[in-house]
Design a protein that fits this description.
This protein is mainly β and 58 residues long. The protein has one domain. It has a five-stranded antiparallel sheet with strand order 4-3-2-1-5, with no helix packed on it. The N and C termini lie far apart (28 Å).
């Protein structure tokens, strides 16, 4: 069984803010640490897997 659904470096968005694209930076103890895409110096945003949705490929 795969523990994490989203690999590090993948683009996702949070269900609460679908306009903001995030990049998975780290995965520790069932928590995803994300940065805003294009703004790596900004503080990390922290989400559980159930709060994230993958960015659809066009």
């Amino acid at each position: 069984m795969i523990e994490n659904k989203f690999p590090i470096g993948s683009d996702v968005f949070a269900k609460v803010n679908p306009d903001l694209i995030l990049t998975i930076r780290q995965y520790l103890k069932r928590i995803y640490y994300c940065t805003v895409k294009g703004q790596p110096s900004q503080k990390d945003l922290v989400y559980f897997e159930r709060e994230l949705v993958p960015v659809p490929i066009n």
